[in-house]
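A student in our group prepared the protein record below, which I am reviewing. What it holds is a sequence and that sequence's fold in token form. My question to you is simply how this chain folds and whether the tokens agree. Do not assume that whoever made the record got everything right. I have pasted the whole thing underneath without changing anything:
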Amino acid sequence: MIRALAALALLSFGRTLAAEPVRPVVLPPAGPLGGYVAPAPAPALGAPLAPSALPGPGDLTAIAAAGRDLYQRFAPALYMPVAVSLGREPGALPGAAAHGWSPAAGHSIVFYDHAEGTESAPDAAGKVGSSFGDPEKLRVSARLERLLAYVHEHAHAVFGETVGNLEARPRDSIYNAVNEGFAVSVERRVMDGLLREGPALGLSDAESADLHAMRRARAAWLRSEDNFYTEGFLRVWQPLSREAGDSGLREFLDSLRSARLLELTRQDAAYQLSQDKPQRLKALLLEGKTAPTAELLETAHRHTLERFFRLYLLREQEMRVNGAPVRYTQRWKDGLEPRALFSLVRESPRARKLLSRWLARAARAGKLGRVFEDGRSPARLQEIAAGAESLPWSKADRQAWDEGLTRFIAGTLRQGP
């Protein structure tokens, strides 16, 4: 039996807020898919619940209440009470929910109902394709999916209320990356808390197994993707958490301001090269202070530099559409031109040497097609080849680069226009 939590004292969030006591977590009752389900008596803490199914429309309030309690229980330093309106809409894209804000309506969270036959639609067992992994492969308790989706979206509301709400969030802005990273940080803490205490709170054995699968799938996705979610979590919030803990994250959150986060874009070299040094990143995001580019290039971790090279030279990512691989370029990378990279690394002997090694590895691995985007732009090929001439090469690396470049050009000519 979980002991009742004592009421928390009023927390300071940089502004005066009414205290919201910590309540025992009560998971919403299970119910049949679709249709209205009359509220059931709340089970006592520790009492087993029936196997989960998607709560009906009348249970969105229960989902939100339980989500807030889980958030406050497992991430108390990052929590604040925020008024949020709830709604539901047909789901056109994979995903469980979405957060929005407007000056007139305030914060809203919309849950998506996916049509039968779509990858995220509920099946006969009450399971849905999970937005925390690949919806085609990972099917989990609909109740659990909605609880964690609510936590993630409520974290966006907390971020907005603390940093500054925005009705439109530009995809290439640092605001978007830091906002998503914060939401993933909160979601991770709640997942880990439920893994520890879920059965005592009423999760079934099947839901506990689903939760383990969701945690593994989310971690794998964060490691394999490179987008604003992963950038914000892995390269902003997680390093700060390791250095300062949740109290340090709270202090950082309270110091952020939306106007500053909108001034910088994700293309900014200082932002990308500061991500392995939390104090340097904090100085940039909070005060606009940064070291000279040459110093950033000379002191950044090797993995940070190699990712920096990839941002410019491997702009295309691969995704699967209807089972077929498709390459695409994230829109925020449109301004990352190879000539800019070669210009930047001129200031750093170390970066120039690492870039030549990186290009040689790409040539040995047969990946120059991705670097040159399959030869669709001769100007891009010429730009990279010319920039490579300015780099310092070892004899073996130069040979690998020249041979790989020759093979690629010969293959492109054979294919024709």
Notes: Residues 291-415 form one domain. The chain has two domains: 57-250, 291-415.
